[in-house]
Specification:
Radius of gyration: 16 Å
Largest sheet: 4 strands, mixed
CATH class: Mainly Beta
CATH topology: Immunoglobulin-like
Distance between the termini: 58 Å
Number of helices: 1
Number of strands: 8
Shape: globular
Strand content: over 45%
Helix content: 10-25%
Structural class: mainly beta
Order of helices and strands: HEEEEEEEE
Number of domains: 1
CATH architecture: Sandwich
CATH superfamily: Domain of unknown function DUF5300
Length: about 110
């Protein structure tokens, strides 16, 4: 009976994490995430959950210009977090190469005009 209770608690924890609400934002610049990781990652823009980018996939969002924090999280890898200056009409691209937990994080970013 204890094993069943433990399994149910674990399932509830997994469901509560996977059911996190995403929010829509918009603006005059763009954020492009390229996920070169082995895992899907959840993307946050100033602590707003934009959604997931699956492994070997990419996604672009319309975001407001100015200085903002971008964060990528994955339960199997180290988190990535960095501040970027978003410029109107420019796409900021972040290529994620998150490593398994306790290893180094690699990320490249570039800005290009839209």
């Amino acid at each position: 009976m204890k094993n069943l209770a433990c399994v149910l608690i674990i399932l509830l924890g997994v469901l509560s994490v996977s059911c996190e609400q995403t929010e829509e934002i918009s603006g005059d610049s763009s954020l492009k995430i390229i996920n070169d990781c082995d895992y899907g990652v959840r993307i946050y823009f100033d602590d707003i959950n934009l959604g997931r980018v699956e492994s070997e996939d990419e996604k672009t969002w319309s975001v407001p210009s100015g200085t903002h924090t971008v964060k990528a999280t994955c339960s199997f890898a180290n988190d990535y977090e960095e501040d970027f200056n978003f410029i109107a009409g420019v796409t900021t691209t972040i290529r994620l190469e998150l490593q398994k937990k306790s290893k180094k994080i690699l990320a490249n970013s570039t800005a290009s005009e839209q």
